[in-house]
From TrEMBL:
Taxonomic placement: Eukaryota, Metazoa, Ecdysozoa, Arthropoda, Hexapoda
Keywords: Cytoplasm, Lyase, Nucleus, Schiff base
Assembly information from the UniProt record: Interacts with YBX1.
Catalytic function, reaction form: 2-deoxy-D-ribose 5-phosphate = D-glyceraldehyde 3-phosphate + acetaldehyde
Pathway: Carbohydrate degradation; 2-deoxy-D-ribose 1-phosphate degradation; D-glyceraldehyde 3-phosphate and acetaldehyde from 2-deoxy-alpha-D-ribose 1-phosphate: step 2/2
Name of the protein in its database record: Deoxyribose-phosphate aldolase
Subcellular location as annotated: Cytoplasmic granule; Nucleus
Function statement: Catalyzes a reversible aldol reaction between acetaldehyde and D-glyceraldehyde 3-phosphate to generate 2-deoxy-D-ribose 5-phosphate. Participates in stress granule (SG) assembly. May allow ATP production from extracellular deoxyinosine in conditions of energy deprivation.
Protein backbone atom coordinates (compact mmCIF):
# COMPACT_ATOMS: atom_id res chain seq x y z
CA UNK A 1 0.00 0.00 0.00
CA UNK A 2 3.01 2.29 -0.31
CA UNK A 3 1.23 4.20 -3.07
CA UNK A 4 -1.56 5.12 -0.67
CA UNK A 5 0.03 4.72 2.79
CA UNK A 6 -0.73 7.32 5.43
CA UNK A 7 2.16 8.42 7.67
CA UNK A 8 -0.20 10.52 9.78
CA UNK A 9 0.21 14.09 10.99
CA UNK A 10 0.61 16.04 14.21
CA UNK A 11 -2.56 16.09 16.30
CA UNK A 12 -4.59 19.08 15.16
CA UNK A 13 -7.86 19.73 17.03
CA UNK A 14 -8.86 22.13 14.24
CA UNK A 15 -9.47 19.06 12.03
CA UNK A 16 -12.27 17.86 14.32
CA UNK A 17 -15.53 18.95 12.76
CA UNK A 18 -19.28 19.06 12.59
CA UNK A 19 -21.73 16.67 10.99
CA UNK A 20 -24.85 17.90 9.24
CA UNK A 21 -27.42 15.20 10.03
CA UNK A 22 -29.95 16.33 7.41
CA UNK A 23 -27.44 16.18 4.64
CA UNK A 24 -26.23 12.73 5.77
CA UNK A 25 -29.79 11.39 5.81
CA UNK A 26 -30.60 12.83 2.37
CA UNK A 27 -27.46 11.36 0.90
CA UNK A 28 -28.22 7.97 2.48
CA UNK A 29 -31.65 8.00 0.78
CA UNK A 30 -30.18 8.92 -2.57
CA UNK A 31 -27.56 6.14 -2.34
CA UNK A 32 -30.24 3.55 -1.46
CA UNK A 33 -32.39 4.69 -4.40
CA UNK A 34 -29.50 4.14 -6.83
CA UNK A 35 -29.62 0.42 -6.05
CA UNK A 36 -32.59 0.30 -8.45
CA UNK A 37 -30.08 0.84 -11.24
CA UNK A 38 -28.76 -2.67 -10.55
CA UNK A 39 -31.85 -4.91 -10.59
CA UNK A 40 -31.62 -8.35 -9.06
CA UNK A 41 -32.15 -11.56 -10.99
CA UNK A 42 -35.76 -12.70 -11.07
CA UNK A 43 -36.74 -16.20 -12.21
CA UNK A 44 -38.64 -16.14 -15.51
CA UNK A 45 -41.16 -18.78 -16.73
CA UNK A 46 -38.82 -20.08 -19.47
CA UNK A 47 -36.13 -20.68 -16.84
CA UNK A 48 -33.81 -18.10 -18.37
CA UNK A 49 -32.14 -15.39 -16.36
CA UNK A 50 -34.02 -12.13 -16.41
CA UNK A 51 -31.25 -10.11 -14.84
CA UNK A 52 -31.29 -7.51 -17.60
CA UNK A 53 -28.58 -5.32 -16.27
CA UNK A 54 -25.15 -6.60 -17.27
CA UNK A 55 -23.52 -4.21 -14.80
CA UNK A 56 -24.70 -6.08 -11.73
CA UNK A 57 -22.50 -9.16 -12.28
CA UNK A 58 -19.54 -6.89 -13.04
CA UNK A 59 -20.08 -4.98 -9.79
CA UNK A 60 -20.48 -8.21 -7.85
CA UNK A 61 -17.18 -9.53 -9.23
CA UNK A 62 -15.50 -6.24 -8.39
CA UNK A 63 -16.85 -6.48 -4.84
CA UNK A 64 -15.49 -10.04 -4.50
CA UNK A 65 -11.96 -8.73 -5.11
CA UNK A 66 -12.41 -6.18 -2.32
CA UNK A 67 -13.31 -8.62 0.43
CA UNK A 68 -11.25 -9.34 3.53
CA UNK A 69 -12.67 -12.84 3.91
CA UNK A 70 -13.02 -13.21 7.63
CA UNK A 71 -13.36 -15.83 10.31
CA UNK A 72 -13.35 -14.61 13.89
CA UNK A 73 -14.88 -17.36 15.98
CA UNK A 74 -13.90 -19.04 19.21
CA UNK A 75 -13.75 -22.42 17.50
CA UNK A 76 -11.52 -21.33 14.59
CA UNK A 77 -8.92 -23.99 13.87
CA UNK A 78 -6.42 -25.03 11.20
CA UNK A 79 -9.19 -26.77 9.34
CA UNK A 80 -11.57 -23.84 8.87
CA UNK A 81 -8.71 -21.36 8.36
CA UNK A 82 -7.44 -23.63 5.56
CA UNK A 83 -10.88 -23.70 3.96
CA UNK A 84 -11.11 -19.92 4.30
CA UNK A 85 -7.82 -19.48 2.44
CA UNK A 86 -8.85 -21.88 -0.33
CA UNK A 87 -12.15 -20.05 -0.68
CA UNK A 88 -10.32 -16.70 -0.77
CA UNK A 89 -8.19 -18.00 -3.65
CA UNK A 90 -11.16 -19.43 -5.60
CA UNK A 91 -14.21 -17.52 -4.40
CA UNK A 92 -16.40 -18.23 -7.43
CA UNK A 93 -17.14 -21.65 -8.93
CA UNK A 94 -15.12 -22.64 -12.02
CA UNK A 95 -18.01 -22.96 -14.49
CA UNK A 96 -19.55 -19.66 -13.38
CA UNK A 97 -16.27 -17.79 -13.65
CA UNK A 98 -15.47 -19.25 -17.08
CA UNK A 99 -18.95 -18.43 -18.32
CA UNK A 100 -18.27 -14.83 -17.27
CA UNK A 101 -15.09 -14.85 -19.34
CA UNK A 102 -12.37 -15.37 -16.71
CA UNK A 103 -9.62 -17.98 -16.39
CA UNK A 104 -10.07 -20.12 -13.36
CA UNK A 105 -6.84 -22.03 -13.05
CA UNK A 106 -4.00 -19.64 -13.77
CA UNK A 107 -3.61 -16.09 -12.64
CA UNK A 108 -7.30 -15.50 -12.15
CA UNK A 109 -7.75 -11.92 -10.99
CA UNK A 110 -10.85 -13.01 -9.12
CA UNK A 111 -9.71 -13.69 -5.58
CA UNK A 112 -10.37 -11.83 -2.36
CA UNK A 113 -8.03 -9.06 -1.21
CA UNK A 114 -7.18 -10.67 2.12
CA UNK A 115 -8.14 -13.19 4.72
CA UNK A 116 -8.70 -11.87 8.24
CA UNK A 117 -8.14 -14.07 11.31
CA UNK A 118 -7.25 -13.93 15.01
CA UNK A 119 -3.52 -13.58 15.87
CA UNK A 120 -3.31 -17.25 16.91
CA UNK A 121 -4.33 -18.33 13.41
CA UNK A 122 -2.07 -16.00 11.37
CA UNK A 123 0.74 -18.52 10.95
CA UNK A 124 -1.68 -21.12 9.63
CA UNK A 125 -3.16 -18.70 7.09
CA UNK A 126 0.34 -17.71 5.94
CA UNK A 127 1.35 -21.35 5.53
CA UNK A 128 -1.75 -22.32 3.55
CA UNK A 129 -1.56 -19.30 1.23
CA UNK A 130 2.14 -19.94 0.68
CA UNK A 131 1.43 -23.56 -0.19
CA UNK A 132 -1.14 -22.60 -2.82
CA UNK A 133 1.13 -19.80 -4.10
CA UNK A 134 -1.33 -17.05 -3.23
CA UNK A 135 0.56 -15.34 -0.40
CA UNK A 136 1.14 -11.74 -1.43
CA UNK A 137 -1.73 -11.76 -3.90
CA UNK A 138 -3.95 -12.41 -0.90
CA UNK A 139 -2.87 -10.55 2.22
CA UNK A 140 -3.11 -11.92 5.73
CA UNK A 141 -4.85 -9.51 8.07
CA UNK A 142 -5.25 -10.01 11.78
CA UNK A 143 -7.46 -8.34 14.33
CA UNK A 144 -5.51 -7.30 17.42
CA UNK A 145 -5.59 -5.09 20.54
CA UNK A 146 -8.08 -7.08 22.55
CA UNK A 147 -10.57 -7.46 19.69
CA UNK A 148 -13.48 -6.84 19.84
CA UNK A 149 -13.78 -4.77 23.05
CA UNK A 150 -10.24 -3.44 23.37
CA UNK A 151 -10.51 -3.65 27.15
CA UNK A 152 -7.02 -4.98 27.90
CA UNK A 153 -3.94 -3.06 29.10
CA UNK A 154 -2.11 -1.10 26.41
CA UNK A 155 1.04 -3.23 26.75
CA UNK A 156 -0.96 -6.39 26.10
CA UNK A 157 -2.64 -4.77 23.09
CA UNK A 158 0.72 -3.71 21.65
CA UNK A 159 2.22 -7.15 22.29
CA UNK A 160 -0.66 -8.69 20.37
CA UNK A 161 0.07 -6.49 17.34
CA UNK A 162 3.76 -7.46 17.42
CA UNK A 163 2.86 -11.14 17.74
CA UNK A 164 0.56 -11.03 14.69
CA UNK A 165 3.18 -9.17 12.63
CA UNK A 166 5.96 -11.59 13.66
CA UNK A 167 3.74 -14.45 12.53
CA UNK A 168 3.31 -12.91 9.10
CA UNK A 169 0.30 -10.58 9.19
CA UNK A 170 0.80 -7.66 6.83
CA UNK A 171 -2.38 -5.87 7.86
CA UNK A 172 -3.48 -5.24 11.43
CA UNK A 173 -7.07 -4.38 12.32
CA UNK A 174 -6.95 -2.65 15.71
CA UNK A 175 -9.95 -1.56 17.78
CA UNK A 176 -10.04 1.90 19.27
CA UNK A 177 -10.45 2.66 22.95
CA UNK A 178 -14.15 3.59 22.97
CA UNK A 179 -14.16 5.17 26.47
CA UNK A 180 -11.55 7.71 25.31
CA UNK A 181 -13.69 8.60 22.28
CA UNK A 182 -16.91 8.82 24.31
CA UNK A 183 -15.18 11.13 26.81
CA UNK A 184 -13.88 13.34 24.00
CA UNK A 185 -10.26 12.61 24.98
CA UNK A 186 -9.14 12.88 21.38
CA UNK A 187 -5.47 13.63 22.06
CA UNK A 188 -5.19 10.58 24.33
CA UNK A 189 -6.84 8.47 21.64
CA UNK A 190 -4.45 9.89 19.04
CA UNK A 191 -1.45 8.99 21.24
CA UNK A 192 -2.69 5.46 21.80
CA UNK A 193 -3.34 4.78 18.10
CA UNK A 194 0.08 6.33 17.34
CA UNK A 195 1.80 3.71 19.53
CA UNK A 196 -0.17 1.01 17.71
CA UNK A 197 0.97 2.40 14.36
CA UNK A 198 4.55 2.12 15.57
CA UNK A 199 3.99 -1.46 16.75
CA UNK A 200 2.70 -2.36 13.27
CA UNK A 201 6.07 -1.52 11.69
CA UNK A 202 5.61 -2.01 7.96
CA UNK A 203 2.22 -3.73 8.34
CA UNK A 204 -0.74 -1.61 7.34
CA UNK A 205 -2.90 -0.25 10.10
CA UNK A 206 -6.66 -0.58 9.85
CA UNK A 207 -8.46 1.19 12.67
CA UNK A 208 -11.83 -0.14 13.77
CA UNK A 209 -13.99 2.63 15.21
CA UNK A 210 -16.79 0.33 16.48
CA UNK A 211 -19.21 3.05 15.38
CA UNK A 212 -22.21 1.27 16.91
CA UNK A 213 -20.73 2.13 20.32
CA UNK A 214 -19.77 5.74 19.60
CA UNK A 215 -23.26 7.19 20.25
CA UNK A 216 -23.19 10.01 17.68
CA UNK A 217 -22.17 10.63 14.07
CA UNK A 218 -20.18 13.57 15.42
CA UNK A 219 -18.06 11.10 17.41
CA UNK A 220 -17.74 8.93 14.29
CA UNK A 221 -16.35 11.90 12.32
CA UNK A 222 -13.93 12.90 15.08
CA UNK A 223 -12.74 9.34 15.73
CA UNK A 224 -12.16 8.93 11.97
CA UNK A 225 -10.10 12.11 11.86
CA UNK A 226 -8.09 11.22 14.98
CA UNK A 227 -7.33 7.73 13.62
CA UNK A 228 -6.13 9.20 10.33
CA UNK A 229 -3.99 11.85 12.04
CA UNK A 230 -2.42 9.01 14.07
CA UNK A 231 -1.52 7.16 10.85
CA UNK A 232 -4.40 4.77 10.06
CA UNK A 233 -4.07 3.43 6.50
CA UNK A 234 -7.73 2.40 6.64
CA UNK A 235 -10.63 3.35 8.85
CA UNK A 236 -13.06 0.51 9.46
CA UNK A 237 -16.61 0.79 10.74
CA UNK A 238 -17.09 -2.14 13.08
CA UNK A 239 -15.87 -5.39 14.57
CA UNK A 240 -18.95 -7.31 13.48
CA UNK A 241 -19.63 -7.94 17.19
CA UNK A 242 -21.44 -4.70 18.08
CA UNK A 243 -25.23 -4.73 18.00
CA UNK A 244 -25.16 -2.15 15.17
CA UNK A 245 -22.39 -2.56 12.62
CA UNK A 246 -21.75 -1.06 9.16
CA UNK A 247 -24.51 1.37 8.19
CA UNK A 248 -24.74 3.73 5.22
CA UNK A 249 -25.02 6.97 7.28
CA UNK A 250 -21.86 5.99 9.18
CA UNK A 251 -20.16 5.21 5.86
CA UNK A 252 -21.09 8.66 4.55
CA UNK A 253 -19.59 10.38 7.58
CA UNK A 254 -16.40 8.31 7.40
CA UNK A 255 -16.05 8.89 3.64
CA UNK A 256 -16.44 12.63 4.20
CA UNK A 257 -13.77 12.55 6.90
CA UNK A 258 -11.47 10.70 4.48
CA UNK A 259 -12.09 13.35 1.83
CA UNK A 260 -11.50 16.19 4.32
CA UNK A 261 -8.29 14.55 5.54
CA UNK A 262 -7.06 14.13 1.98
CA UNK A 263 -7.89 17.76 1.27
CA UNK A 264 -5.91 18.92 4.34
CA UNK A 265 -2.91 16.57 4.07
CA UNK A 266 -2.80 15.07 0.58
CA UNK A 267 -2.91 11.50 2.01
CA UNK A 268 -5.43 8.92 0.82
CA UNK A 269 -6.91 6.67 3.50
CA UNK A 270 -8.96 3.54 2.81
CA UNK A 271 -12.48 2.72 3.99
CA UNK A 272 -13.56 -0.69 5.28
CA UNK A 273 -17.20 -1.36 6.10
CA UNK A 274 -17.41 -4.50 8.21
CA UNK A 275 -20.05 -6.34 10.13
CA UNK A 276 -23.41 -7.43 8.78
CA UNK A 277 -22.56 -6.95 5.09
CA UNK A 278 -24.37 -10.06 3.91
CA UNK A 279 -25.85 -9.59 0.43
CA UNK A 280 -24.71 -8.56 -3.04
CA UNK A 281 -27.09 -5.60 -2.77
CA UNK A 282 -25.48 -4.52 0.53
CA UNK A 283 -22.12 -4.63 -1.21
CA UNK A 284 -23.28 -2.72 -4.30
CA UNK A 285 -24.74 -0.03 -2.09
CA UNK A 286 -21.29 0.49 -0.53
CA UNK A 287 -19.66 0.62 -3.96
CA UNK A 288 -22.13 3.34 -4.97
CA UNK A 289 -21.34 5.27 -1.78
CA UNK A 290 -17.60 5.13 -2.39
CA UNK A 291 -17.89 5.97 -6.08
CA UNK A 292 -20.14 8.96 -5.34
CA UNK A 293 -18.25 10.36 -2.36
CA UNK A 294 -14.62 9.42 -2.98
CA UNK A 295 -14.45 8.66 -6.69
CA UNK A 296 -14.15 5.58 -8.84
CA UNK A 297 -10.39 5.27 -8.25
CA UNK A 298 -11.11 4.52 -4.57
CA UNK A 299 -12.63 1.20 -5.63
CA UNK A 300 -9.45 -0.82 -5.44
CA UNK A 301 -8.04 -3.03 -2.68
CA UNK A 302 -5.51 -0.40 -1.62
CA UNK A 303 -8.33 1.95 -0.66
CA UNK A 304 -11.49 -0.05 -0.09
CA UNK A 305 -12.31 -3.38 1.56
CA UNK A 306 -15.33 -5.21 2.87
CA UNK A 307 -14.83 -7.05 6.16
CA UNK A 308 -17.19 -9.98 5.80
CA UNK A 309 -17.65 -13.55 6.91
CA UNK A 310 -20.94 -14.28 5.18
CA UNK A 311 -21.09 -12.19 2.02
CA UNK A 312 -19.67 -14.54 -0.61
CA UNK A 313 -22.59 -16.97 -0.51
CA UNK A 314 -25.13 -14.49 -1.86
CA UNK A 315 -22.68 -13.14 -4.44
CA UNK A 316 -21.92 -16.61 -5.72
CA UNK A 317 -25.63 -17.45 -5.84
CA UNK A 318 -26.44 -14.34 -7.84
CA UNK A 319 -23.64 -14.91 -10.36
CA UNK A 320 -24.76 -18.51 -10.73
CA UNK A 321 -28.32 -17.35 -11.40
CA UNK A 322 -27.04 -14.87 -13.93
CA UNK A 323 -25.12 -17.40 -16.00
CA UNK A 324 -27.42 -20.43 -15.66
CA UNK A 325 -30.86 -18.88 -15.27
CA UNK A 326 -31.65 -21.04 -12.28
CA UNK A 327 -31.27 -20.97 -8.52
CA UNK A 328 -28.49 -23.24 -7.21
CA UNK A 329 -29.28 -26.04 -4.82
CA UNK A 330 -27.70 -25.75 -1.38
CA UNK A 331 -25.12 -28.48 -2.06
CA UNK A 332 -23.72 -26.72 -5.16
CA UNK A 333 -21.53 -24.31 -3.20
CA UNK A 334 -19.10 -25.57 -0.67
CA UNK A 335 -18.90 -22.54 1.60
CA UNK A 336 -20.93 -19.36 2.05
O1 LIG B 1 -14.03 -7.60 10.34
C1 LIG B 1 -14.94 -8.27 9.94
C2 LIG B 1 -16.15 -8.56 10.69
O2 LIG B 1 -15.86 -9.20 11.90
C3 LIG B 1 -17.06 -9.42 9.89
O3 LIG B 1 -18.34 -9.31 10.38
P1 LIG B 1 -19.47 -10.28 9.83
O4 LIG B 1 -19.18 -11.62 10.46
O5 LIG B 1 -20.76 -9.70 10.31
O6 LIG B 1 -19.35 -10.35 8.36
Amino acid sequence: MTEHGNPGTEFDPALLGNVNLNSVNQLAKSISSKLDLFPEWVPSPDGKSSMKDKHRPAWILKAVTLIDLTTLAGDDSLSNVSRLCLKAARPIAKDVLEELGFDYEDNSPIHTAAVCVYPNRVQEAVDVLKKIKMLGKINVASVATGFPAGQTPLNARLAEIRYAVENGATEIDIVINRPLALAGKWKALYDEIGTMKEACGTAHLKTILATGELDTLQNVYNASMVAMMAGADFIKTSTGKESVNATIPVGIVMARAIKDYQHKTGYKVGLKPAGGVRTASDAIQWLILVKDLLGHHWLNPALFRFGASGLLGDMETQLYQYVTGRTPSGYEFTMG
